Amino acid sequence: MEQTELSTDTANKVILCRAAIAWRANAPLSIELLEVDPPKACEVRIKILSSGICGSDLHILEGRNKVPLPAVLGHEGAGIIESVGEGVTSVKPGDKVLTLPLPECRECCFCLHPKGNVCVKEDILFPTGLMLDGTSRFTCKAQKIHHLFGTSTFTEYTVVHEIAVVKIDDASPMNKVCIISCEVPTGFGAVFNTAKVTPGSTCVVFGLGGIGSAIVMACKASGACRIIGVDINEKKFPRARALGATDFLNPRNLTKPVQQVVAEMTGFGADFAFEAIGLIDTMVAALESCRRSYGVCVIMGVAPNREQLSFDPQLINSGRTLKGSFLGEYKSRDCIPKLVTDYLQKKINIDPLITHTFHFERINNAFEVLQDENENCIRCVLLF
């Protein structure tokens, strides 16, 4: 698992490896032999050692969020550089790396802005499923296979652009740090960077899955005195309590809208609200859970395609702030390695966020566990 020595025999050659391919939505992934092309200029090929399974991957398989198919899904990847294309300077073969679903080109107006992190070269908002040159590096059964978010980590080997990969410390445990590609920065950054949660404040977190659990941890670290967890699966409550949540609400068991109950519990609403589910109704409920004048609501959840957010403008006129947060506002190549270092130095602890591990060939079992309310799954990690 920690081996970093790679053969040089594969450089500049097509690699035949196993990959989990999503041929269509609402169907299991299929383990197939995938042809992975060598990296072109400014690209790298990575031997994947571990990959987290994010809710976004599940939503794609369920058909809720549309991406070009067939595709190799997955975006939380940790691996070793196998080979590099011409012009690559930031990494070399043998380096331990993380894949970055949100690239950082360091040239566009967003990357150059002090607060910007949604690089113009991202492939998340309107995914094409292709590399930056408009082509794919994957072939299966003589058919070209799409990439996902420029990463694609449900495969033994993948190709990504140099701006979507970052070198990490050689001491990094590769069976764990993969979640620092997405889950950790998305949750932590929403609290530390976007909302800027203050000591003594009250927070409400809608959704206690992977991202929501990271948010709970960050709210506690920020000194919040009350953290209200909202979820329809009460089996998640004990684990969330261990991470720092103090109160819990199951909307299905309430006789009033959950936002009204939050307001009654807190006087006038929470100081900070976080939506980590991705449903229009819960986004509005999170906003309405904020207190007027200075309440802040942060949305990380990705709503189904073509849905529109609608709410009473008085919620904003009365002083509430509604914010979105992409990868926690972290500049990916600049900041992700620092989070890994913080973990190695025990400044942050990501271990409680990983509840299940599976060998790669059991990926469909991992998705079943993610969906099973009785399993109380926060994050599954695949080991290759």
Q: Any idea what the radius of gyration is?
A: 20 Å
> What share of the residues lie within helices?
10-25%
Distance between the termini: 8 Å
Largest sheet: 7 strands, mixed
By DSSP (H or I, 4+ residues per run), the number of helices equals 10
Uncertain stretches:
none
Strand runs, count: 18
Order of H and E elements: EEEHEEEHEEEEHEHEHEHEHEHEHEHE
Structural class: alpha/beta
Backbone shape: globular
Let me know the average pLDDT. 95
The percent range for strand residues is 15-25%
Give an overview in words:
There is one protein chain. Strands 3, 5, 6, 9, 10, 17 and 18 form a seven-stranded mixed sheet that branches. Helix 5 (about 235-245) links the parallel strand 12 (about 225-230) and strand 13 (about 245-250). This protein has about 375 residues and is of the alpha/beta class. The longest helix is centred in the middle third of the chain and has 13 residues, at about 185-195. It is globular and about 65 Å long. Helix 3 crosses helix 4 and helix 6 (about 260-265) packs parallel to helix 7 (about 280-290). The chain is about 25% helix and about 25% strand.
